[in-house]
């Protein structure tokens, strides 16, 4: 059978099964989707997604959210594969937009997270958090509406025994918090700054990327978050260490930005006398010309450092840093 014939037959098979009463038992089409994913059959082609766009609500969203709200022993084994299949569909921009803007999806996610936490459905939880990260990279008023509740669920899961779940929970915070100032204030009051600091001390590269972004969002929005960060790490050694993440522009750039936020606190620049802060920031400011954001953030942090504590200028001159900063002016302006 040729590829396009298979696509057409898949659609023919899928269409009549969507009329099954999804409120009485697991819809057969979802089993079929999951089975196809497990057999690594690539049916989520561009043409398939185009066909699905106009019937997404009835064919996918309604049965999917119904299952998420009613996780039980009869369906929990297929949900991880089904969630991964939905994630494949969400690679299509139109489908991802519809999922991100559908209120029922986000209500169902909240219900499902609580169910998974209560009944230890770790595999479902892990897959679902990955899907939420993917969908929440898109700005949506629906996500904003549910941001506080979603972040509140995530805060509880930061104490989970599974490192993979903690990593993905942090990922959700890193993508949802930028969409809601109310959610940012909520997590700061719930001590998220200390949680992120603990993660940054012992996490792998993915969790580090998520945690530093979360921390940067919080310190950008809140004086309290900056104070909490400095209380946890008076010499800002965690951020200084992350400045050397030369292989990851997102980590080093956010670390420099987070430092710049903290340097607005009185006395912090003086506390950093005698550390390697000038050298590390200078390396980033003089780094790869393609890493514009990193260079800009590092240059801004250096400017705040020397303005707050002029004695740092001695080290800057010793390292010929004034010339480097001069070359960075175009990025700042």
UniProtKB/TrEMBL annotation:
For the biological process aspect of GO, one term held by this record is: sperm axoneme assembly
Recorded hits in SUPFAM superfamilies, A to Z, give: ARM repeat (SSF48371)
Q: Which InterPro entries match?
A: ARM-like, ARM-type_fold, TTC12
Gene Ontology CC, one term: cytoplasm
Q: Which PANTHER family match?
A: TETRATRICOPEPTIDE REPEAT PROTEIN 12
- Name of the molecule in the record: Tetratricopeptide repeat domain 12
What is the species of this protein? Seriola lalandi dorsalis
